Amino acid sequence: MSSDLLNKVCLVTGGNGMLGQEHCLALLEKGAIVYSGDINVTENTRFKKNDKYHAHYLDVTSENSIQNLLNNILMKEKRVDVLINNAAIDSKVTQANTIELSRLENFSLEQWNKEISVGLTGAFLCSKVFGNFFAENSGGVILNIASDLSVISPDQRLYFKKNLIDKNKQPVKPVTYSVIKSALIGLTKYLSTYWLNGKVRVNALSPGGVFVEQPVDFVKKIEKLIPMGRMARIDEYRSAVQFLCSDDSKYMTGQNLIIDGGRSVW
Ligand SMILES: NC(=O)c1ccc[n+]([C@@H]2O[C@H](COP(=O)([O-])OP(=O)(O)OC[C@H]3O[C@@H](n4cnc5c(N)ncnc54)[C@H](O)[C@@H]3O)[C@@H](O)[C@H]2O)c1
Predict the structure, then answer these.
(1) Residue with the nearest Cα to atom 32 of ligand 1?
(2) What spacing in Å lies between the alpha carbon of 51 and ligand 1's midpoint?
């Protein structure tokens, strides 16, 4: 399975983040040459001894930064085959005791612009630069990392704090998360039909929440919303990434693969 990823050159944006590292490992497992592009390029011991892994500075909000990285990859590898648009700003905006900044009524335009510029504009810019390269050369794959919240609305009761009497101070999942993730599905569909030469496949992966020792109360509540009764383990998206980035999915484009323990079915 997925042997065609051997020595394929892949870029994972936000590759130094929690799931970004998993996507890098998924591709490395299949023999790919992996570039992690992130604003955070601290040395990562998980990849230390792997000479097929390269960490580069990348700011997905800057077209220059994206073009520079493409040029660097091409200079070294002479090819590039896969782009995973994974970078995002973790949109938890809670500020206890003052006003609750994650709430719609308090959500600032500045915060809106900041999050949209990474999660959505960043995916657009990377797709523009890499997608055009794929279309004009030997083809490629774009994978947009969305979320189960690309197809369902956040259940704000998950974030409700019992000890907070003032309902105007209750934290919520910010509006930007839903907007960005839904828009990534639109971007996926648009791009999948844009280059009509069949050389560029574009799909989305919509993961459900990963268990990372969140507060017990939150975990209990979210488990009740998931038919399989649990959050995802961190490595449970690796095989989907391998499938979507390789020829195993060669007749698939414009789709959103939702892997969420069934949450979006209820
Ligand atoms: N964690 C989950 O449970 C979960 C569930 C569903 C979807 N997702 C999605 O998966 C993706 C990764 O999530 P995560 O939990 O690993 O987040 P994370 O915060 O751990 O990683 C995000 C990475 O993006 C990088 N980044 C931020 N701004 C950037 C920029 N301008 N240019 C380049 N890189 C930048 C950060 O430095 C970070 O390394 C996101 O798109 C997220 O929405 C996560």
Answers:
(1) 59
(2) 24
Q: Which two tokens stand for residue 81?
A: 């085959």
DSSP state string for 99-146: --TTSGGG--HHHHHHHHIIIIIHHHHHIIIIIHHHHHTT-EEEEEE-
Query: Ligand 1 pocket, 209 CB below 6 A?
Result: yes
What is the distance between the alpha carbons of residues 230 and 232, in angstroms, rounded to a whole number? 7
Tell me the two tokens of residue 261.
């323990």
Of the candidates 41, 27, 36, 33, the residue with the CA atom closest to the CA atom of residue 7 = 33
Q: Within a 10 A sphere around the Cβ of 149, how many other Cβ atoms?
A: 22
Which among 2, 43, 168 has a CA at the least distance from the CA of 99?
Answer: 168
How far apart are the C-alpha atoms of 179 and 187, rounded to whole Å?
12
What would the pLDDT profile of 91-130 be if each residue is shown by its tens digit?
A: 665 655 567 899 999 999 999 999 999 999 999 999 999 9
Instruction: Give the nearest ligand 1 atom to 149 CA.
Output: 6
- pLDDT tens digits, 130-139: 999 999 999 9
> Which amino acid, 102?
S
Q: Whole-angstrom Cα distance, residue 90 to residue 155?
A: 17
Tell me, using a 6 A CB cutoff, whether residue 39 lines ligand 1. Answer: yes
Strand partners, 143: 84, 203
